[in-house]
Amino acid sequence: MVTDERALTHVDESGEATMVDVAGKDVTARTATASGRLCTTAEVVTALRAENLPKGDAVAVSRLAGMMGAKRTSDLIPLCHPIGLHKVSVDLEFNHDTVDITAFAKTADRTGVEMEALTAVSVAGLTLIDMVKAVDPAAYLTDIRVEEKTGGKTGTWQRV
């Protein structure tokens, strides 16, 4: 069992899963940015740009799905606290045969929003896969990760 400062916070002394008690933490402004990548074909990226897929406007649907997913994070991840989100945005950047997905989440609460940003990226990416699978059944998501978080006791953290 990890016993230093990096101890697992969702495991109690007996090794059982537990929800962290955040009642004593200060309410602070907190943000998180996460990213991921949809890997597909150049033809699919062209169709996404042109809003020319059989299922419709995949870009708008995936952005909306990502925002909705962020709002439902505590329903999907068992030990996540339900928090009030003040802002969620999902942006897509088209490359030759990939789409970079970036999500930003913001709250003023007692716990961070990293999981909400990660969920937004994941749900947006899964929605893109659903929207493009008829033309590229091999499309996949990769590199889903937190890029930056601010606020709380630990302050700012950035991926280097």
Q: Can you walk through the features of this model?
A:
By secondary structure, this protein is α+β, with helices and mostly antiparallel strands. 28% of the residues lie in helices and 28% in strands. It is built from 4 helices and 5 strands. Strands 2-3-1-4-5 form a 5-stranded antiparallel sheet. Strand 4 (140-150) and strand 5 form a beta hairpin. The longest helix is centred in the C-terminal third of the chain and has 19 residues, at 114-132. It is elongated and about 50 Å long. The relative contact order is 0.25. The model has no long low-confidence stretch (mean pLDDT 92).
Strand content: 25-35%
Quick one: how many beta strands? 5
Radius of gyration from CA coordinates: 18 Å
Number of helices: 4
What is the string of helix and strand elements?
EHHHEEHEE
Structural class category: alpha+beta
Question: How do the strands of the widest beta sheet line up side by side?
Answer: 2-3-1-4-5
Question: What is the arithmetic mean of pLDDT?
Answer: 92
Residues in helices, as a percent range: 25-40%
- Taken from the alpha-carbon principal axes, the silhouette is elongated
Low-confidence stretches: none
How far apart are the termini? Answer: 28 Å
The main pleated sheet reads as:
5 strands, antiparallel
Brief summary of the model shown:
With 160 residues, the protein is of the alpha+beta class. Helices cover 28% and strands 28% of the residues.
Features:
single chain; 160 residues; alpha+beta; five-stranded antiparallel β-sheet; elongated
